[in-house]
Amino acid sequence: MRFDFQNLNERSRRNNGSAIKHGRWWLYFGKNRSSLNCEWKWLSGNFGAEIDLASHDHAVMVSFCCLLFSVYLSLNHYPLERRLERLTKRKGEKYGNGRTIGIRIFDGAIWFDLWNDPMEWRSADPKWWHFNIRPADIVFGQHTYSERDLSTERAEIPMPEGCYPATIRFFESRWKRSRWPFAKKLVRADITPDTPIPFPGKGENSWDCGEDATHSMTTVADTALKATMAMTESVMRSRLKYGDKNWRPKAFDVA
Question: pTM higher than 0.70, yes or no?
Fold first, then answer.
């Protein structure tokens, strides 16, 4: 039998904080190198409770999170894991991925796992295995999206090798709930240069070693200056990522 402990509260690269805030321990026992593990964290920001069976290399894992703190308990015991895998695998499959049973709250929804396969989803899976409920949608109705054209302008996109003439379409995006009087609105811009703006290919395969190009983009902008600068910054990031700051296209002709 052996006991190990780790402090996960890294306040900085040199100094660790108290392990009471974030830490874990392992208790090893038995001939199969089985272990009982525990990890905890204060102020985790999560909310939910789950039981995992034969998943994530654990025989059983139990988690409980209530915003202020989270705790995870797991048992690693290979004979039990193999038995649970056989009980939880899909019909006709040789191996299984385990199952998850629990409830979580995040992204404005309540997520239910009643027999969820954590590693695989199939269209034929029963809906009750994994589903969510969004209280705001039930009370106020689901968001519906609509657009309204505002204007179209001509502009030039500045690049180190010259300017690229482009057409900019400004439009208003609107998200509205049927039973809520207020709508979320956002002015955006579709930018389409007359000539695609080049940047280096990724160079990961034989077919992307040459030049690539940006043909259009959509960004949050209510003026031509904001829209053109957003495209300039986007293309320059691609050039710096796949080339260098001095990279220029082999041919430049926007006439």
Answer: yes
